[in-house]
Amino acid sequence: xxxxxxxxxxxxxxxxxxxxxxxxxxxxxxxxxxxxxxxxxxxxxxxxxxxxxxxxxxxxxxxxxxxxxxxxxxxxxxxxxxxxxxxxxxxxxxxxxxxxxxxxxxxxxxxxxxxxxxxxxxxxxxxxxxxxxxxxxxxxxxxxxxxxxxxxxxxxxxxxx
Length: 161
Known about the structure:
- This protein is an all-alpha fold.
- 71% of the residues lie in helices and 0% in strands.
- It is built from 8 helices and no strands.
- Helix 4 (57-71) crosses helix 5 (73-86).
- It starts with a helix and ends with a helix.
- This is Caspase recruitment domain-containing protein 19.
């Protein structure tokens, strides 16, 4: 996979913006690392802007990703490095990382996808369906035939008096 970090960040941006694991604290850690270690990528003024707590975290993250994409390849690479350092579980669940992992697996080792697997709703089988259907029919029959005699009984008693 020969994608540049810039292209990967374009692909992963939607996922990063929607992932709830990137909270305010983690976004601040990433911003501080980019600012302290690579001030040419994120200046003090820009870091202050992206760390403003009056702006929601999702908006700040979206603006940061756009800013890094405008800065170029090196900025995107350093963002991935900071993400890997501070939020490893998010880093390894990125769409581009998952795709790389699947592509690196030997084709002979990949699990075969059977077409019937897509349509299986549960693992119970036909006997489970028949038993549930029979129980529903039994309850319906009890309700239908079980309620009528109870309603007629008081009428019969009133007539006998």
